[in-house]
Amino acid sequence: MDTSRVYRALLENVLPYLAGETEAPPIPMTELIEPEMAAVAMMKSKNLGGIPVEISELSESDYAYDGTSFGVEYRRLSGY
Fold first, then answer.
1. Which of 23, 36, 53, 62 fits a disulfide with 41 by CB distance 3.0 to 4.6 angstroms?
2. Which domain, by its residues, includes 14?
3. How many domains are there within the chain?
């Protein structure tokens, strides 16, 4: 798999749904958000000292994040 093209391929398939151009998501919503849920579980695990956290163990309060800090760190890591 060419990992440099994966994100673009995902966006090309998902954006029409997110923009309201199609009625149904290209894959079930639970699968569509799974990568983000895994990232939230990983962040919670880090905050808890590294203990494993399953996606099923997350609560609604775990979903919040600091968008400004995320954007700053994302730009730093991506070179933008």
1. 53
2. 1-29
3. 2
- Residues 36, 65: Cα–Cα separation, whole Å: 12
* Residue whose tokens read 């919670």: 44
In the structure encoding, which two tokens stand for residue 74, read together?
């994302």
- Those residues with Cβ within 8 angstroms of residue 58's Cβ, 6 or more apart along the chain or in another chain: 37, 40, 41, 44
22-79 pLDDT, tens per residue? 999 998 988 888 988 999 999 999 999 999 999 999 998 888 778 898 889 888 988 7
53 in Cβ contact with 46 (< 8 Å):
no
Same domain, 41 and 75: yes
